[in-house]
Structure formats: structure tokens, C-alpha cells
Amino acid sequence: MSTETAAPVAAPEQRLHPMSWLFELVASLRQFIVPLVALLFFGRGGGNAYEWWALIGVAVLAVGSVVHYFTYRYRVEERSLVVRSGLLQRHLREIPFARIQNVALHQTLLHRLFGVAEVRLESAGGHKPEAQMKVLRLDDAMALEALVRRRGNARAGEAAAAGDGAEPAAATAARTLLELPPGEVLRLGLVSNRGLLVLGGAFAASTQFDSRFVGNLMEYWGQTLFGWAESHDFAPADYLLAAGTLVVAFLALMRVLSVVLALLQFFGFRLVEEGRRLTAERGLLSRLRTSVPRRRIQAWTLEEGVVHRLLRRRSLHVDTATGTGEGGEHRGLRELAPIATPDACDALVRHLIPRATWPLVDWSPVHRLAWLRLASGGVTVALLAALLLSLRFGAWGLLALAWIPWSVFAARRHAARAGFARDHALVAWRAGWWSRHWRFAEIDKLQVLQLSRSPLDRLYGMSTLHLDTAGAGAFGPPLRLRYLREEDARALHRSLGAEVARRKLRW
């Protein structure tokens, strides 16, 4: 009697949501909306031909969206996700769960109305997601995210057992690390300058339809304002009061726009730890949920501006080993704490880097002449400005030299606060005066150490130590220790180099 071993049954392929073609069409129309509108409204001189061409363009996009729905399949296997797509040119993509670094669930207002979500699976490199599913039912998207997290944790546990330096197994129970109530989101809007982004976006959008729109508007506003002022014969003090009022109104408008944008982007922010992964969810109308393994965090940045200090708040950002989009946007988890108290930020760092003793205590100062290097730029600009202005306006141009004392004062303040520190787990740099920041990374994540000296550095006996990790510096301040005494820089370079050579890389 012979027995046959049954072949493993392949997992069934799954389709996208039946309405995914509609969201694909909306996304395509968003990209081509400007030329379509221009063709429809600004090409009326050619009769109905332009309208027909616009309709044909929309029809082509609709057919492409339907074809994408019928040809896109995905299959969940034991160790990987298999994606099949394409009609004429077919693609078969296998994505191991252990290689998926970031899982992003995106819901616009339209997505939320239909109960669906867009899913992006991203690795540590590349300019495009490994898989982008437009769209899945929300429960299917959440189940896929949980599956990736569970399978990824299992693979990492196997790697830890094999001794490759991965993190030890962790509990899978979800734990909320930080949650922002609406009051904190309002504070975030007050400390940020995102209102300028809204104004810049409105300016860019207006120029797409009429390049002279902003210029004509400013010209009309100026003529009306100055004509009205001349007719009322105001005194100089009245003009100063009006100018000050306009400045205050503009700043207030920027803050209001910043608050609105903060509410739209960070309302309901929640940072959750699930096993080895961190998941952040945020957004008022459009919801975004991103998930990344803790071990992929490459560098940390604590920021504290003037308004931060008035409100007794800070912001905590991280750089992760996740690729950037085609436009240079950051696709991974970046904000661990968009705004929080200093104690909450420090507690978050200590929890996520238990080997470190944060905040570090023993900070070493920079070179005693670092303020000369910091002031040299402002002094040079002031001298050149004074020279050029004096040629045009005579002695009045020398008023530009008044900038020199301020440059020297600010440079001294910056140099007094700058410094570096390290312990057995971290190396850190602090800088800034008005706006301060602390930049640090785990020694186990360092890949390259580089000492550099410019001609001015050699003149003053200084050096700069550059620290490189897999992903640090793309969206935050450079990870570098500047204006160090040469002997300090060389000693730190030797000690860190010995540690990096001895330890296994954890990225």
C-alpha cells in the first residue's frame, strides 16, 4: 500500500474592495485636475472639441482604474505576501513579512464614508512602497496590519534565537505610550509655524490658474489702501500704528492657520506599543495610521522653541530606516510626541531605550573659540551690506554694522549651550539658543564615523565628528558634533570607533 504526501494547499488570492476602482480614479483625477480644468475652461475658443478631449481623458483614466481592479490580486502565505498585478505587462512581487518595516493605513474623508482604507507596505529603502493597496475594507486592512505585525514579530523572534542581535521577544499586548487631548493639539498649533505652509500652498494653487493673480491682487490692494490713506491725511504715528496692526494681524492669522492645520493632522493622536512595533494614529478628517518596528529607529531629536518653553512643552521626533517617497516626503513614523511635557518626552526615551540613562548629565563643552566661528557668517554679511549700502546711501549705509554686536552676542549664547555627551548606550549633541534641540543616537546603530576639519577649523584647532546611521539626517538636523576641541574629537572618535567595531550592528 503506497501513501502519497499531500502537497500544501496554496492560499487563495484576494481582490481589492469592489469600489477600489473609484478611489483609483479619484487619485488619478487629482493628479491631472489642473490640465483637465485648464482644457475645459480655458480652451473654449475651440468649440466643443476641448470638452470632448477632457471627457476622453476622464474615460481613459476610468478604464485604467477598472483594469487595475480586475488585475490586482494578493495572497497571504506563511512567510510572505505575494502581489500579482498588470494586464499586458504582468508583475509578481513577493514581500517577506520580516522585510516590511512600515505599515501605513490611510483614510481620507471619502474612505471613511465607504468604510475602507488604503494600505501601504514599505521596506527600509526605495522610492516606492513594496505594495500599495487601493483600497481594502477597513476590517480587512486592520487584519492585514495585525498579520504583518504578528508574522514580523515571529520572524524577529527566530532571528533573536539564532543570535543575530535582534531584540528579544516581547509581549504583544497593546500599550498606549502617549495620547494627545484636543488641548495639547491646540498647543501644537500655537508652537508650530505650519500656517506658512497653508499660505504657500494657497499661493502655489493660485498661480496654477493665473500667474498674475497674486500680483494683481496686491496691486489692487495697495492702490486702494494708499488712496484711502491719502484722502484722510493721516499723521506719521497713524501710519506706524496701522503698520503694526497689520503685522500683528498677519501673525495672528498665521497662528490660526497653524492651529487649524494641527487639528486636521494630529487630532486624536495616539502612540501605541504592540510587541516590537510602534503604531501612531492621527487625523481629524483624514486618518493616518503608521506602524514601524522599534529597532528601525535610527536617531532621535528633541526640539524646544521659544513658545515651547512658554508652554513648558517639547517635541520628540525620530528618524527611521524607511525609504522616502518620490517627492522626498518621509513615509515612515516620524512624530513620537508632536508635543508633550519635558518629563513625558524623557520618560518616552527611557522606555524605548532602556539601556540608556536619559537625560544625560555629563555634557562636555565645545571649543572656547567656537563663538568666533558661529559669529563669522553674520559679521561677514554685515560688513558686505555696510559696504554696498554706503556706496548707495552714503553714511546711512553704515547702520548695517549695528548687526555685528547682535551676531557676536547670539554666537556667544549658542556656543555656551552647545555640547556633547555619551554613555554606554547613547551619544548626543545639543545646540541652539532661541530654538534648542538635542540630537542623539544609540551607539549600536552607528555605521560610519568621520572626522572633518575645514581650513578655519585647523586655524582654531577644532574638528567636527560626523555620525552616520541607516536613515539619520534625511529629515532632521545632521547627526554631527561641531566645533569640538581637536583632542576631544579624536578621543571620542577612537572610543566610539572601538565600541562600534566591538558591537553588532542593530538596525
Write structural notes for this entry.
With about 500 residues, this protein is α+β, with helices and mostly antiparallel strands. Among the domains are: about 10-70, no CATH class; about 195-265; about 370-415. The chain contains 14 helices and 20 strands. It has helices spanning about 20-40, 50-70, 110-115, 140-160, 180-190, 195-210, 215-230, 235-265, 305-310, 340-350, 370-395, 405-415, 455-460, 485-500; strands spanning about 75, 80-85, 90-95, 100-105, 115-120, 130-135, 175-180, 270-275, 275-280, 285-295, 295-305, 315-320, 335-340, 365, 420, 425-430, 435-440, 450, 460-470, 480-485. It has a seven-stranded antiparallel sheet with strand order 6-5-4-10-9-8-7. The longest helix has about 30 residues, at about 235-265.
Short description:
The protein is α+β, with helices and mostly antiparallel strands. The protein is 46% helix and 23% strand. The chain has helices at 20-41, 49-71, 109-114, 138-162, 182-191, 195-209, 213-232, 236-266, 306-311, 342-352, 370-393, 403-417, 455-460, 486-502, and strands at 73-76, 80-85, 91-96, 102-107, 116-122, 131-137, 174-179, 270-274, 277-282, 287-293, 297-304, 314-320, 335-340, 364-365, 419-422, 426-431, 436-442, 448-452, 462-468, 480-485.
